Amino acid sequence: MVWVVAMTLLSARRLSKYFGGLRAVDEVNFELETGEIRAIIGPNGAGKTTFVSLLCGRLEATDGSIIFENQDITGLPAFKRARQGIAYTFQITSIYSKLSVRENVAIAAQNATDKSRDAAYRVQDALTRSGIPELADEIAGSLAYGHQRVLEVAMGLAMSPKLLILDEPTQGLSDMEIEQFCELVSDINNTATVLLIEHNMHVVMKLAQRITVMDRGRVLAEGLPEEIRRNDAVQAAYLGS
Amino acid sequence: MSSEQAKSIFLHAGVLAGLFLLQFFLPEYHHLSVTRIMLLAVFAMGFNLLFGYTGLLSLGHAMFFAAGMYGAGLSAYHLGWSVPLSFMVGIACGVVLSLAIGLIALRTTGVAFMIVTLMFSQVAYLTIVYFTTYTRGDEGLVMPESARQFVLFGQQLSLTHPGTRYNLALMLLAIVMASVWLLVRGDFGRSLIAIRENEARTKMLGYNTFLIKLKVLVVSGTISASSGAGYALMFAYIGSSFATIQYSIDPLLYTLLGGAGTVLGPFLGTALMFYLIDITSEYTSAYLLVAGIVLVILVLFFPRGLLGAVRNRWFGWLP
Question: Are A88 and B209 an interchain contact pair (Cβ–Cβ within 8 Å)?
Answer without folding.
Answer: no
